Amino acid sequence: MTGIDLKQEIMRVNNNVNITMFGTGLRKQRVTIIEDKIIISADHKRIPALAALDGKDRMATRYIDVAILDEFKLRLKKELAAQIKLPVKSVLKDYDPEHELAVTVIVLTEPFTADQ
């Protein structure tokens, strides 16, 4: 698989996990591969119920965000391994609700090479 093919597959899997969890896909995403790390930056639409509560009780919505991020990371790791056989060691993710921007870092057990 080439690097471009891998990026397209990662974007497809990432978007599908978003759809299954949130009922909507990503507005935009970009994938960068650097040795054993894959970085995804994505524009997300904020969950409307959480957006409504952010101004009133940001600490409560932060706890919910963390729980959602943890579940997302588990699902993404599972789907990347199952669908495109990526040797995923760890998935790290954070989300900025003010700008609706998420960054995900996927750490592989070995560097990606185009002939994998």
Q: Can you tell me about this structure?
A:
With 116 residues, the chain is an alpha+beta fold. It is built from three helices and four strands. The chain has helices spanning 3-22, 48-54, 58-84; strands at residues 28-34, 37-43, 88-96, 101-108. A four-stranded antiparallel sheet has the order 1-2-4-3, with helices on one face. A hairpin with a 4-residue loop joins strand 3 and strand 4. Helix 1 (3-22) packs across helix 3 and helix 2 packs antiparallel against helix 3. It is elongated.
| Structural class label | alpha+beta
What strand order characterises the main sheet?
1-2-4-3
Instruction: Give the tally of β-strands.
Output: 4
N/C terminus separation: 6 Å
Binned, the helix content reads: 40-55%
Q: In a nutshell, what does this entry contain?
A:
By secondary structure, this protein is an alpha+beta fold.
Descriptive terms for the model:
116 residues; alpha+beta; elongated; four-stranded antiparallel sheet
